Predict the structure.
Amino acid sequence: MGGCERARAGLRRAGGLLAMLALLLPAPGLAECLRGANVAGAEFGDLPGVAGKTYTYPSRATLSYLRSKGMNVVRLPFRWERLQPQLGAPLDRAELARIDETVAMATGMGLAVILDPHNYAKYRGHMVGSPKAPSSAFADFWRRLAPRYAGRDDVIYLLMNEPAHISAADWLPSVNAAIAAIREAGADNLVMVPGTIWTGASHWFEAQPGGSNAEVLAGVVDPLDRYAFDIHQYLDADFSGTKTACDRVGDAIAAVDAMTRWLSETGNSAFLGEFGGHPRPDCYRGLARMVGQVNARPDVWLGWAIWAAGDWWGDYPLSIQPVDGEDRPQMVAISRLIERRNPEEKACSAFKRN
């Protein structure tokens, strides 16, 4: 969608965002670079699970805390199987109501919401695109969900979290089927497209059968040309975020640099949807470097969401959930980098590339 068309569409949708104007902190709108956090909990537990006992959606207190830090976006993980217990069937009303409530609460505070089916390109263990979870079923899921928040700049559709154990060539047909379904359903929302190999920047150019993410995902088709890539990058030995030390900060920064060059050269944009580190000085320095690196390129990066806030994290080492009202050190490390300080960050030109 061109800049003029997007501006006109934004004006038509402005009425739905007026409630944000009453907040002390300015509302983001999608012209402003996005800086925020994942809010984990709804993807927790075994299936089917019991809401409030084995999994949870974020509380008002958690969302208010993130907003008070100046953040303007949350990435909301949830399980596809809970929202659609049977492929091809209607969405579960109770689970949809929980998502509705979270979206209303977050956007009412001025937080945009990225909806994130946190399934690694699987449904009940079956790979998307396989006979038991065909691309048509994935498209059906999005065809049912997309109209719910259609026409809203403050709700973004992430197709899937971290596709893994699938090649980019096998993933692309499902991507294009889902985008087509979203647009056919009348939704012009921004769509985020992940790559494979956990959509890591460090793996974006890695050889795969049929081609790398960089090669294959040049074939993404969006009738509105309103999509961005969802990219993840951790700082530890295998870039998984599961190791204690952040001993590959330099390699992670280099991977994001390579991703930035590719975005610039190809006319694409991206969002850093996950990154994080343990509570230790090498991680704090790495987190600040990575956030600063993305902040410096609002022409290609829409922004970032750190992993992760969430009411049930307890002593999880990557948590940024405050404890007894005190900020976790990871939040302290990035706090000065949350504010959108200059005109380029407040009018994020990365949004105009799509």
Remarks:
- The chain has one domain: 3-17+35-353.
- Residues 1-29 have pLDDT under 50 and may be disordered.
- The chain is about 30% helix and 15% strand.
